């Protein structure tokens, strides 16, 4: 859904309050009888003097503010401390047993050790106060041996978890978490605000997770949200299951957890709450969750779960919340829901759920939030949703969802969020949308809505988020009309047929809303919007693909002090309007494809300045900005050497793209052991000498493109230790020698198991091709994980979103730049070298190959019939060699083959006869004097026609998808691999 609250944020909906009350009741039922004294101020024995003294010392450790004056108003020396607000004592001896200062907004420079003098404490709550990033005391907690409840959540502590906490064997509830809130914009999943931190300031440094949990066998509640548990690896699950057999609440959101959920967790039958959102968990969602009869909350959103989830989980009778949002490889179908379901919150958006939305969803009468934002849904939206009178948030997507916005939505009078995106809904916006007086989030994106944007939408004064991008809306929109929406924080009108202008300003500029996110891409804007002059709280601006020229106004840099994203690509800007440095530390800056000239200076995290006319040397000022993660200066006129500081790779930089400049010299060989590079592109320059051997420090490297330079080096067997390398492009350089060296120890090491693109064409390699053993090591060309992503991309830490890699290869005879590297594109190019000998038979085992080019060498011998096993092959070029023998009949059934070039060899015999082979022109076979048969004019004598039956499969929706993809320039095999990866059934062809 658009707005999401993670663990322990202030409650915003009734659901969270109900869950909190429920858990509090559960906890009270588990506490020892003596804790019953917490509920009464009356004590038989007054507070002991040493206890009062400790409390007063603790009071003095807090800064005096209005909040502290209120909190400690009753804390006066000489009075009974057992009657002080937030303090409870044991009836029998006057010792303090409970200290509750939670959510008082207190401030302190550190936790005073006076707390540990109250050794009878059983209950301590200091949550939601501010301890100014002070460290938790390393000693003292071990003295609180009677403690059953410890809550230090969201109190801005830092440092390591004290070892003393691990010895508190009576603990029933432990909370060291930090709460977070975020708002996510559909359909791209961009986080609007509340950037979710990677981990809490509290860490387990010096105390591993197993050591922390080992003695906490009585624990019922465990809250460690945003505590970094990454060092635990996949063992976290086993540790929890072993140490906490009585656990009822497992809350570990945003803890950097990885791996699957282990089967040993199935023994925790008492679990009521499972909150594992914002982690890196993978594998299937365990079906044993259905055995947890008391489970009410299941939050697994923002992970990497895959496979099909059991519908029994969705039918669980006790579950109140099911959140599976943003698990892109998780599939499933909605069941027939029973009237006995307890669901209040259901979100399966950004998953691969599919099918028809069942009419029985109307049985979920308690539902308040319904997120069905999965592209696989189709058919009509069931009218039974109109019966869900308590529904406050509704989100639906699916390209197969057709029709118009249904009128029954008017029954949902409590709606605050309405989102239709990525769907087939069409038509103009109905008048009744203006009746939703509580609506604060309207997202109608990437559908087929048309017509003018009606003015009555501006009457929805509660509106905070308005997203109307990627439709067919037309007409003129004046930005000043949004002054009627004082709460508006996000506006997206991109990718329509709109003309956006400023409009008339009046003297009441103060009435303009304070926008946080503004996206006006493709809005036919010709002048820089003066509307932005008054947006001093804005963080995200996208004005790309308009017609704005000249300089960025000076007032922009004075106004946008909170800006972290600025996209001005594909305009006519000539100057940033500020020199010599950009004055703001913008995280993401895209100035590409404008008319900037001259030197280019200061950037921060994700920087795109490609496609301009920037000149001179690459400024060393880049090296002073340690937070640069992605730097793209491609397609400019930078000259001189690559700055050595950029090549260190130790500052967290993920991608460096210097493609198509005029850089000279050699690569700096100073890459550090902590190298973080994932993608390097230096293609299209004038770089000489050899590649830096320090590249072996880049253990995360996935893409290396150095094509079209003047590099003189041997083959890169030494790089085979980089087991994540997927794209290796060395084409058009001066590489030399054999691909696999003659030394036995080097032969065994020269392997690239993750490679899907290897292009070493147009170099000076010689000798025989690598033998069978080398090709068999190309594992990713043999097998592909069906659950893996279709596109090579990576999330960008601390920024949000993802970055897609690019590369340029010669595909089907044309130089092609892939702006997105699809993992289904598997390509091998050894052409234009001096290889000799025969073609290895093992190439026939690379069943995922789409392109194979070994032309312009000196290869001899026959074409291996094993190439007939390459069922995905679309392009085969073996031309300009000395191959002999007949064309193998096994090639005839390769139906996906669209480019075939066997010209200029010594092939003989008849060309295989098949309907598919008849589609190739005679140029595919010229220069082979011994060949005969169609399409050549030379007839064969005494030949037998191969009996190949043409395929005429029945047309269906898959065929249509294939035709569309092929029409966009992809081959049939490539298109089919995408269809299969999407999980669309493809009818097998019969022969």
TrEMBL record:
Which PROSITE patterns does this one have? LRR
Signal peptide range in chain numbering: 1-37
Keywords of the record: Cell membrane, Glycoprotein, Leucine-rich repeat, Membrane, Receptor, Repeat, Signal, Transmembrane, Transmembrane helix
Family named by the database record: Belongs to the RLP family.
Report the GO terms under cellular component.
plasma membrane
Q: Where is this gene product found?
A: Cell membrane
Can you tell me where the transmembrane regions are? Answer: 960-984
Species annotation? Urochloa decumbens
Q: Where is the Leucine-rich repeat-containing N-terminal plant-type domain positioned along the sequence? A: 49-89
Q: What is this protein called?
A: Leucine-rich repeat-containing N-terminal plant-type domain-containing protein
Q: Is Zinc one of the keywords? A: no
Q: Membrane topology for this entry?
A: Single-pass type I membrane protein
Q: Where is the Disease resistance R13L4/SHOC-2-like LRR domain?
A: 359-533
For this protein, the record's InterPro entries field holds: Leu-rich_rpt, Leu-rich_rpt_typical-subtyp, LRR_dom_sf, LRR_N_plant-typ, LRR_R13L4/SHOC2-like, RLP23-like
């Amino acid at each position: 859904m658009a707005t999401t609250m993670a663990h322990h944020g202030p409650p915003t909906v009734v659901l969270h309050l109900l869950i909190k009350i429920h858990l509090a009741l559960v906890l009270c039922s588990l506490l020892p009888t003596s804790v019953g004294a917490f509920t009464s101020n009356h004590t038989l024995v007054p507070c002991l003097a040493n206890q009062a003294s400790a409390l007063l010392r603790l009071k003095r450790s807090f800064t005096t503010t209005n909040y502290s004056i209120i909190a400690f108003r009753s804390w006066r020396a000489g009075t009974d401390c057992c009657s002080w607000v937030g303090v409870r004592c044991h009836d029998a001896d006057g010792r303090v047993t409970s200290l509750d200062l939670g959510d008082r907004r207190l401030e302190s420079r550190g936790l005073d050790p006076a707390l540990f003098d109250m050794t009878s404490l059983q209950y301590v709550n200091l949550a939601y106060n501010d301890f100014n990033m002070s460290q938790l005391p390393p000693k003292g907690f071990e003295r609180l041996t009677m403690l059953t409840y410890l809550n230090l959540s969201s109190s801005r502590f830092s440092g390591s978890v004290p070892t003393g906490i691990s010895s508190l064997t009576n603990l029933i509830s432990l909370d060291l978490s930090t709460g977070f809130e975020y708002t996510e914009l559909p359909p791209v999943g961009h986080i609007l605000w509340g950037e979710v931190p990677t981990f809490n300031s509290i860490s387990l440094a010096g105390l591993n997770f197993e050591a922390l949990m080992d003695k906490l066998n009585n624990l019922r509640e465990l809250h460690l949200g945003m505590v970094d548990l990454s060092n635990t690896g996949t063992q976290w699950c086993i540790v929890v299951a072993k140490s906490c057999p009585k656990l009822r609440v497992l809350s570990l959101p945003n803890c950097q957890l990885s791996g699957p959920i282990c089967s040993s967790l199935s023994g925790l039958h008492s679990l009521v709450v499972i909150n594992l959102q914002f982690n890196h968990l993978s594998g299937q969602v365990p079906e044993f969750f259905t055995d947890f009869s008391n489970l009410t909350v299941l939050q697994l959103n923002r992970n990497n779960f895959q496979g099909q989830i059991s519908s029994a989980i969705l039918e669980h009778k006790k579950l109140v919340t099911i959140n599976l949002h943003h698990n892109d490889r998780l599939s499933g179908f909605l069941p027939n829901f029973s009237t006995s379901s307890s669901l209040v919150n259901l979100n399966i958006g950004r998953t691969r759920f599919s099918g028809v939305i069942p009419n029985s969803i109307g049985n979920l009468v308690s539902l308040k939030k319904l997120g069905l934002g999965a592209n696989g849904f189709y058919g009509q939206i069931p009218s039974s949703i109109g019966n869900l009178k308590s529904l406050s948030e509704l989100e639906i997507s699916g390209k197969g969802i057709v029709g118009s916005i249904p009128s029954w939505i008017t029954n949902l009078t409590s709606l605050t969020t309405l989102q239709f995106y990525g769907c087939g809904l069409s038509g103009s916006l109905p008048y009744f949308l203006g009746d939703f007086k509580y609506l604060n989030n309207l997202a109608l994106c990437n559908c087929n809505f048309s017509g003018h944007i009606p003015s009555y939408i501006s009457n929805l004064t509660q509106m905070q988020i308005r997203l109307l991008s990627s439709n067919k809306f037309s007409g003129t929109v004046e930005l000043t009309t949004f002054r009627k929406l004082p709460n508006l924080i996000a506006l997206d009108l991109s990718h329509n047929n709109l003309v956006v202008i400023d409009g008339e300003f009046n003297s009441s500029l103060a009435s303009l809303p304070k926008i946080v996110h503004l996206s006006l891409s493709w809005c036919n804007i010709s002048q820089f919007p003066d509307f932005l002059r008054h947006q001093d709280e804005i963080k995200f601006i996208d004005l790309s693909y308009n017609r704005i020229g000249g300089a960025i106004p000076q007032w922009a840099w004075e106004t946008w002090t909170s800006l972290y994203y600025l996209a001005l690509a594909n305009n006519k800007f000539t100057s940033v309007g500020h020199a010599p440095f950009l004055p703001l530390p913008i995280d993401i800056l895209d100035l590409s494809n404008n008319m900037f000239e001259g030197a280019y200076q200061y950037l921060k995290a994700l920087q795109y300045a490609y496609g301009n006319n920037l000149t001179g040397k690459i400024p060393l000022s880049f090296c002073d900005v340690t937070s640069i993660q992605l730097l793209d200066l491609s397609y400019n006129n930078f000259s001189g050497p690559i700055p050595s500081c950029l090549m260190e790779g130790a500052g967290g930089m993920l991608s460096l793209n210097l493609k198509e400049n005029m850089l000279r010299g050699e690569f700096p060989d100073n890459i550090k052991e902590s190298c973080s590079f994932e993608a390097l592109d230096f293609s299209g320059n004038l770089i000489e000498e050899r590649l830096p051997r320090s590249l072996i420090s880049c253990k995360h490297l996935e893409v290396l493109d150095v094509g079209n330079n003047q590099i003189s080096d041997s083959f890169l067997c030494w790089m085979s230790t980089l087991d994540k390398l997927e794209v290796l492009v060395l084409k058009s350089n001066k590489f030399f020698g054999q691909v696999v060296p003659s030394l036995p120890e080097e032969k065994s090491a020269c392997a690239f198991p993750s490679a899907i693109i290897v292009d070493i064409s147009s170099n000076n390699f010689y000798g025989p091709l690598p033998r069978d053993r080398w090709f068999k090591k190309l594992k990713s060309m043999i097998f592909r994980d069906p659950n893996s992503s279709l596109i090579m991309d990576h999330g960008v830490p601390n920024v949000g979103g993802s970055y897609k890699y690019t590369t340029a290869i010669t595909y089907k005879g044309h130089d092609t730049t892939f702006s997105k590297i699809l993992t289904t594109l598997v390509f091998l190019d050894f052409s234009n070298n001096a290889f000799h000998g025969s073609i290895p038979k093992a190439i026939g085992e690379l069943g995922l190959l789409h392109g194979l080019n070994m032309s312009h060498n000196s290869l001899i011998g026959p074409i291996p019939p094993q190439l007939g096993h390459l069922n995905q092959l679309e392009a085969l070029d073996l031309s300009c060699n000395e191959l002999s023998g007949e064309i193998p009949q096994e090639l005839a059934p390769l139906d996906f083959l669209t480019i075939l070039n066997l010209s200029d060899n010594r092939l003989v015999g008849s060309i295989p006869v098949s309907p598919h082979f008849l589609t190739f022109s005679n140029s595919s076979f010229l220069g082979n004097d011994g060949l005969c048969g169609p399409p050549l004019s030379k007839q064969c004598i005494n030949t037998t026609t191969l009996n190949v039956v043409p395929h005429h499969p029945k047309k269906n929706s898959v065929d249509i998808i294939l035709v569309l993809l092929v029409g966009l320039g992809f081959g049939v095999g490539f298109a089919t691999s995408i269809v299969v990866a999407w999980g669309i059934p493809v009818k097998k062809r019969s022969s």
